[in-house]
């Protein structure tokens, strides 16, 4: 038997292997980028995410920026401004030091850096691939700081993509990372948002850690926080912690641990804290803990893990034991009484804070909210039917398949392998136009709506605060579908049709309808259907690549865009929709093409059919109550024109006046 030949790996392979160790998922990449921003002394950090960070992961800060001279090597491995010799690790005070984060990201994604320093008159933008600069940095406008854009993460590592969770779960991990850094770095303002949507997390640069914990993790945790401090001269460490009292518990424990301001994990410390609370909490319940340790740098070894989420330090057992005893002592001192929060008074019981004679409030002069101003519906109430999706779909429409689970391997491969250079200018302008037309007051109304019931196939009722509104569901949903088509441009999943439908036959069926307005002077219906099919076949690549509407070479309609999850359009109006795509869409100019296509598609998806309502009433009720109106609440940016489609029927103040007269 001959021994195997030992060969030196190619440098590209080595770099990709190293990148896979450091950047394991989008949250790892974001953690490295946040630490770079904090090292740059940023006071504002904004993170924008699309598809769980796989399509887009952008971080913008107002830090010191990167010098123009350093842009050439900033993405090469082991290039850093944090240390010069190995001995510097013993006194490292920054988050990064290896110089591998940006290099690793550039090997598994498309990376662009836009930066401006205080001394430069303008900013510079540079793009990188496999650690190398793709061209000389280009001058650009911009504010001081850095914008790092990561697109198509793991585009060249399909095995890693398959191992990742769904975009929603990856987004949750990203939110967890931002939340933890926002709590610890209370002097820095953090913003996290999905692309094209309002922020999901926002903190101020002047808030305290207690404020950020309350804002991010909830009022219940914020009320139960107990500060714990410890400073030890023997082992040279200092601790500042916020732990929950024993009257709070949750099934999933949350622990935030920072050692020398670096987010890390410690199994031993977590087990020690759980052992403390096991005396007080029911079995299976856990506390919330935030711990910040500052240890002498000479006692700390940070270079033990590629992602730096683990550290080793001297006297670990002794330090953990002291922390355990201090927290236990603090809990014992706080266990003499527990706080209970009251919300309502029992009927017939007088308010002790109100003087019976004068009727005035004796405490802080706060007036109790009058009955006519009370909101009678709790927006947190949910019905069981919300979780019971009726499986009464049209026969031509099957289950929703996202692009990541597309059965057509060729399309998935082509979409994942090609690089998207960003949105088209026309789409950006159309999205900006939606933002400019936004009615803030109407948006606030939709954000706080509570669905009441369906009036007919066009109108429904909802409540906002003390007001009752009649809403034109069709008009609101048409605007919703139009906006989602633009904001999810090139990122739409699809609805697969089984069997596929012949578009010539669909056009011929549409011409038989009165709505088409066909007359003998227009020509033979078969010839018209042939011409319409040829138009749609010629424009099929545009509809497929941008809007997930696929027409194959045999003129068969295979898929429709899935604009809103779980929502399926009425199949009754499908023939007329196909006809209008051929006749009403302006395919010659880019802006008009996208505008008319999105409008026609939104019009089709918003239409309801009396036939569908009569045959599947439960499906229609479910779609309106649990799909459309929650989508209005979450996504819709209403323009001023929609004010004419919303009618205030009454409010509690007006009703009380009526009852008083009676």
Automatic annotation (TrEMBL):
PROSITE patterns: DNA_MISMATCH_REPAIR_1. Residues 351-378, 398-418 are annotated as: Disordered. It is found in: Nucleus. Residues 213-332 form the DNA mismatch repair protein S5 domain. The keyword Nucleus applies. Residues 354-378 have a biased composition (Basic and acidic residues). GO terms for biological process: mismatch repair. Its main location: nucleus. InterPro entries: DNA_mismatch_repair_CS, DNA_mismatch_S5_2-like, HATPase_C_sf, Mlh1_C, MutL/Mlh/PMS, MutL/Mlh/Pms-like, Ribosomal_Su5_D2-typ_SF, Ribsml_uS5_D2-typ_fold_subgr. GO terms for molecular function: ATP binding; ATP hydrolysis activity; ATP-dependent DNA damage sensor activity; mismatched DNA binding. One of its GO terms (cellular component) is MutLalpha complex. Gene3D superfamilies: 3.30.230.10, Histidine kinase-like ATPase, C-terminal domain. Keywords: DNA damage, DNA repair, Nucleus. PANTHER family: DNA MISMATCH REPAIR PROTEIN MLH, PMS, MUTL (PTHR10073), DNA MISMATCH REPAIR PROTEIN MLH1 (PTHR10073:SF12). Belongs to the DNA mismatch repair MutL/HexB family. This is (Mediterranean fruit fly) hypothetical protein. It comes from Ceratitis capitata (Mediterranean fruit fly). The lineage of its organism: Eukaryota, Metazoa, Ecdysozoa, Arthropoda, Hexapoda. The gene is MLH1.
């Amino acid at each position: 038997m001959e021994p195997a030949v030992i060969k030196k790996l190619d440098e590209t392979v080595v770099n990709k292997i190293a990148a896979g160790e450091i950047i394991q998922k989008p949250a790892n990449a974001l953690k490295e980028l946040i630490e770079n921003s904090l090292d740059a002394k940023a006071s504002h950090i904004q993170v924008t995410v699309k598809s769980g960070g796989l399509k887009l992961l952008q971080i913008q800060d107002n830090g010191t920026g990167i010098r123009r001279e350093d842009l050439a090597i900033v993405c090469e491995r082991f290039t850093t401004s944090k240390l010069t010799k190995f001995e510097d690790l013993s006194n490292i005070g920054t988050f990064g030091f290896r110089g591998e984060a940006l290099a690793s990201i550039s090997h598994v994604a498309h990376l662009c850096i836009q930066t401006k320093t205080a001394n430069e008159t303008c900013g510079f933008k540079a793009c990188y691939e496999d650690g190398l600069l793709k061209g000389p940095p280009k001058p650009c406008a911009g504010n001081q700081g850095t914008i790092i854009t990561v697109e198509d993460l793991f585009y060249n590592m399909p095995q890693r993509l398959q191992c990742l969770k769904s975009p929603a779960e990856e987004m949750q991990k990203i939110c967890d990372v931002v939340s933890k850094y926002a709590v610890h770095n209370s002097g820095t303002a953090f913003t996290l948002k999905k692309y094209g949507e309002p922020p999901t997390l926002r903190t101020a640069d002047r808030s305290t850690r207690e404020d950020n914990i309350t804002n991010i993790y909830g009022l219940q945790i914020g009320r139960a926080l107990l500060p714990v401090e410890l400073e030890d001269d023997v082992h040279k460490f200092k601790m500042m912690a916020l732990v929950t009292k024993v009257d709070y518990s949750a099934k999933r424990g949350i622990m935030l641990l920072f050692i020398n301001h670096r987010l890390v994990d410690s199994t031993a410390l977590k087990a020690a804290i759980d052992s403390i609370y096991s005396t007080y909490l029911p079995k299976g319940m856990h506390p919330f803990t935030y711990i910040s340790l500052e240890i002498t740098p000479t006692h700390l070894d940070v270079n033990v893990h590629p992602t730096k989420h683990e550290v080793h330090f001297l006297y670990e057992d002794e330090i953990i034991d002291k922390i355990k005893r201090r927290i236990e002592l603090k809990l014992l001192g706080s266990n003499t009484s527990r706080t209970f929060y009251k919300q309502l008074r029992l009927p017939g019981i007088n308010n002790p804070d109100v003087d019976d004679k004068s009727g005035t409030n004796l405490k802080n002069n706060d007036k109790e909210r009058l009955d006519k101003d009370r909101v009678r519906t709790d927006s947190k109430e949910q019905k069981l039917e919300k979780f019971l999706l009726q499986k009464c779909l049209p026969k031509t429409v099957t289950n929703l398949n996202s692009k990541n689970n597309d059965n057509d391997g060729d399309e998935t491969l082509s979409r994942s392998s090609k690089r998207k250079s960003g949105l088209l200018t026309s789409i950006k302008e159309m999205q900006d136009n939606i933002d400019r037309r936004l009615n803030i007051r109407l948006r606030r109304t939709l954000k706080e709506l509570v669905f009441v019931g369906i009036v007919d196939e066009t109108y429904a009722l909802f409540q906002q605060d003390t007001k009752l509104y009649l809403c034109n569901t069709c008009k609101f949903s048409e605007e919703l579908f139009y906006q989602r088509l633009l904001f999810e441009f090139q990122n739409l999943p699809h609805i697969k049709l089984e069997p596929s439908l012949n578009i010539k036959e669909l056009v011929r069926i549409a011409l038989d309808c009165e709505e088409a307005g066909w007359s003998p002077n227009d020509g033979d219906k078969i010839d018209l259907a042939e011409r319409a099919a040829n138009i749609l076949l010629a424009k099929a690549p545009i509809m497929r690549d941008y809007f997930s509407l696929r027409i194959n070479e045999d003129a068969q309609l295979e898929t429709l865009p899935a604009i809103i999850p779980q929502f399926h359009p009425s199949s009754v109006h499908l023939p007329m929709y196909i006809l209008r795509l051929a006749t009403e869409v302006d395919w010659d100019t880019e802006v008009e093409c996208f505008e008319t296509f999105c409008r026609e598609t939104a019009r089709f998806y918003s239409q309801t059919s009396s036939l569908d309502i009569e045959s599947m009433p439960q499906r229609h009720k479910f779609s309106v109550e649990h799909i459309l109106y929650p989508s209005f609440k979450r996504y819709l940016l209403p323009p001023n024109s929609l004010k004419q489609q919303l009618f205030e029927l009454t409010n509690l103040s007006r009703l009380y006046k009526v009852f008083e007269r009676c």
